[in-house]
Design a protein that fits this description.
Dna Ligase, domain 1; alpha+beta; binds adenosine monophosphate; D-amino Acid Aminotransferase, Chain A, domain 1; 22 strands; globular; Rossmann fold; 5-stranded antiparallel β-sheet; binds glycine; 5-stranded parallel β-sheet
């Protein structure tokens, strides 16, 4: 198969790495990709949001399957565009992608179908939102309705912070049209977990549970990031809880989508809050998580192209997923200053030596290659994933590997997958 992969992050490097293992893969193109994906196929200088150029390329090169990594092209309808030309593309259509692209849509779906989630109200007028805040106790969670590159959520410790968040979103229009509506939620405490699932519209098959670490500093301190590390399978989600999540959240979500006439084919990301053994949905996404993909995909033994094909054909029920018994730990190395302002353009050393180690994978994200050398080019620079038999030694190996990679200002959390401080 000739496959076109869209995106350029660590998630896409992990997807490319997994696709490259498929016996069915003939040629892999990644648009725009990064130096990590360039080692596994050919990178294209096409922006991930330039749908028309992507479509022209897919038609010209007779691409058999296009795989969409990030949410923005899905929310903007790339799947609908490709399908109109009878091209195969993996990911939900624009209507189905609303599960992620509108928090109001997702919350109202959960409410109508009794899927456990935080209580909420949504508002299109800032005055009404501000009045509502006066009647509520802090903490409160304020969310821009639309896509905001992971920055649209404020956990407000005081009413004043909630007011400020509403003003930024609705009055200052910090996220543009994504802030035309605002969702204000009850604050949930507990521990977060991620369950990714393949869905073919009729059947939904969960992957192994994982956990990411969003705050930038050790112990969960500092501002939220896209994710500073992850590990899988998450011990927090044992068999019993997994079953409960299947019954109360995963299956009901599929039924809800079906009842709404939405044919969801792709990935559903369940962002969960676990409180006293009960799970509630914090958010849905419609794609692999990043960095979650960097720990879940290395443990997947089934051919990813077989799974994608089954999702597109509506044949998931005929496939059973195989998982490695190993553990995976991913440490994200970020640019100094991230997630605030940071500088780029520093040379990265040690990639080749460390990347050759057994059961160590380096997935590149914010990097660029110039004259054979790799330089930093983004906030999250790369992910170092280690595989092993148990978490303690696996995380030690991930950290030894990270210590062998060097660039100016590099920083990473030192407590990823540290189960003793959970
Ligand atoms: P979201 O994009 O909706 O998942 O929100 C991003 C992050 O904000 C989540 O991963 C949580 O850490 C936090 N968050 C979102 N909603 C809530 C909530 N209702 N209670 C507590 N934390 C939340
Ligand atoms: N790791 C969180 C996300 O991918 O949205």
């Amino acid at each position: 198969m000739r496959v076109l992969l869209i995106g350029s992050g660590g998630r896409e490097n992990a997807l490319a790495w997994k696709l490259a293992q498929s016996s069915r893969l003939k040629q892999l193109y990644t648009a725009p990709g990064n130096p990590g994906t360039a080692e596994l196929g050919e990178n294209l200088e096409i922006d991930e949001n330039d749908h028309q150029t992507l479509l022209d390329f897919a038609l010209r090169k007779e691409i058999d399957l296009t795989v969409v990594g990030p949410e923005a092209p899905l929310a903007a309808g790339i799947v609908d565009l490709f399908q109109q030309q009878n091209l195969k593309i993996f990911g939900p259509n624009q209507q189905a992608a609303r599960l992620e692209s509108s928090k109001d849509f997702a919350k109202s779906l959960m409410q109508r179908y009794n899927i456990p989630t935080a209580n909420y109200r949504s508002f299109t007028e800032p005055e009404k939102a501000l009045e509502y805040i006066k009647t509520q106790e802090a903490p409160l969670v304020v969310k821009a309705d639309g896509l905001a590159a992971g920055k649209g959520v404020t956990v407000a410790g005081t009413r004043a912070e909630a007011v400020q968040a509403v003003e930024e979103i609705m009055v200052a229009e910090k996220f543009g049209r994504a802030g035309d509506k605002v969702v204000i939620e009850e604050f949930l405490s507990g521990e977060e977990a991620t369950i990714l699932a393949f869905c073919d519209g009729k059947k939904i098959v969960p992957m192994i549970p994982s956990q990411d670490h969003k705050p930038v500093y050790d112990g969960g301190e500092g501002p939220n990031t896209g994710g500073m590390g992850a590990y899988a399978p998450a011990p927090l989600v044992g068999d019993k809880l997994q079953q409960k999540i299947q019954q109360t959240i995963i299956t009901p979500t599929l039924r809800a989508l079906q009842s709404e006439g939405i044919d969801f084919r792709g990935i559903i990301y369940f962002g969960l809050m676990i409180t006293d053994g009960e799970a509630r949905v914090l958010e849905y996404n419609v794609r692999f998580g990043d960095p979650e993909a960097q720990v879940v995909l290395p443990l997947l033994e089934t051919d990813l192209l077989d799974i994608f094909q089954a999702v597109l054909d509506g044949n998931l029920s005929e496939l059973s997923l195989k998982w490695s018994k190993q553990k995976a730990v991913c440490v994200i190395m970020a640019s100094g200053g991230y997630p605030e302002k940071y500088q780029t353009g520093y040379q990265i050393r040690g990639l080749e030596e460390i990347g050759r180690q057994e059961d160590i994978m380096i997935f590149q994200a914010g990097t660029k290659k110039e004259q054979g050398k790799i330089y930093t080019a983004g906030g999250r620079v790369l992910g170092v994933t280690a595989l092993g038999e148990e978490f303690q030694s696996t995380r030690e190996r991930a950290y030894r590997a990270a210590a062998g990679i060097d660039f100016q200002g590099a920083h990473y959390r030192s407590d990823i997958a540290d189960l003793t401080v959970r």
